[in-house]
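User: Design a sequence. Structure:
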């Protein structure tokens, strides 16, 4: 049972008498908002990668799969700039990939086909409408 509530640490009065306010974080939140055009651009980039894999009649390699799954997770979280960075990593030529990261990725079992990735993308797109 809580006997008294003194407030959150962000509500405490520090030196100088100014209260740390949660509203100061709103500028960070504003920067995390994306226009419909920005969202559509990232969705189109991911779709283009999936179309390219379909055109090559192959599934994603472990590196591509990991980047695409991370990108989709960022899209689901609304972090479009991070999703875009993952898509940029996804299309790196094999010789430019981080050897350490690729070694770690190759240890994971492959679970995603292009169809499954496309289903997740469709779910992301339908959730923002």
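Assistant: Done.
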């Amino acid at each position: 049972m809580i006997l008294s509530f003194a407030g959150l640490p962000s509500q405490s009065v520090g030196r100088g008498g100014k209260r740390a306010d949660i509203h100061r974080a709103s500028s960070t939140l504003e920067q995390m908002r994306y226009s419909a055009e920005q969202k559509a651009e990232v969705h189109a980039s991911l779709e283009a990668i999936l179309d390219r894999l379909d055109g090559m009649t192959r599934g994603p390699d472990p590196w591509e799969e990991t980047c695409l799954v991370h990108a989709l997770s960022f899209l689901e979280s609304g972090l479009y700039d991070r999703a875009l960075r993952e898509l940029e990593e996804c299309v790196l030529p094999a010789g430019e990939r981080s050897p350490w990261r690729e070694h770690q990725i190759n240890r994971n079992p492959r679970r995603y086909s292009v169809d499954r990735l496309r289903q997740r993308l469709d779910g992301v797109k339908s959730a923002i409408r």
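Confidence is low (pLDDT under 50) at residues 4-12, 25-31. Residues 36-55 form the longest helix (20 residues).
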